[in-house]
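Sat 14:20. Reprocessing the chain from the morning session after the first attempt stalled halfway. Input below, unchanged.
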Amino acid sequence: MRLNKYYLISALSVLMLVLMGSAYRSDDFFLIKKNFTLFTEVIQEVSNRYVDETDPQRLIRHGIVSMLEMLDPYTVLIDESDNQDYEIITTGRYAGVGIEVGARNGRLVVIAPMEGYSAYQKGIRAGDIILSVDGISVSGMTLEDLNSLIRGEPGTLLILTIERTGFEQPIEFELIRENVQIKNITYYGYVDEAKTIGIVSLSHFGQNASVELRNAIQDLRTQGTLDNLILDLRNNPGGLLEEAVKIVDKFVGPGIQVVQTQGRSFDASFTSSTTEPVLFDGGLVILQNNGSASSSEIVSGALQ
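Finished this time. Tokens:
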């Protein structure tokens, strides 16, 4: 009898825990629903009663972006209806001045200028804080809004005002928009006459970056012995995670865990490991600077 009572008490305890958990989840959903209702009412009031005409879609989008910015600088919304951002990520093509921008400490900064384009040629540097574009202050803007200002028709003038460490006054640059093709590899060759030390400058982790790296290494081997390799990731702001994993694969043996992402649910977790034979096993040096981020850091950390 005592045994049965014990089982009964244990069962009741489990049931209470389950019910408490369900209540907690229900409260969460109730708060979400309540705040959605409030959000909808505010949007309607602003749309109908604000002194100036408003764009409800823009207000809602700004609300979503601001919510994500509260989490961290790297959680962003990519709208599948806006193919431009997806094309830039995958193909690396757009019209602009050749800078990668990001958010740091609540301010919009230059992550990296791209060699060969207007921003690089005029002297824009990684770490420059963007103050305005064509006289329009970027204070409080989202990355999406800033990119919309910077991109435009090729051949048009853009005035970029920045704040730079060591300078008391803002600096103004006149830049020309042009068709930008983000290259994965901007240069490869030998740094010594004996052709034993090669260098590959990897500026982006776009589509086929790992294939281009493989081809560069194979080409270097036809020109020299390639005993050592310098992998230059300076001013590389990142790109596709799967390409970063494939690049690590060229330097370490199969079965090495490169990256693990973890979410609150099991389905949100992801682990990626190397699978290919080693392509290069000589001496390896990696170059980085404050313009190296995201996938660059993953590659450097995995190879360290």
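Residues 2-49 form the longest helix (48 residues).
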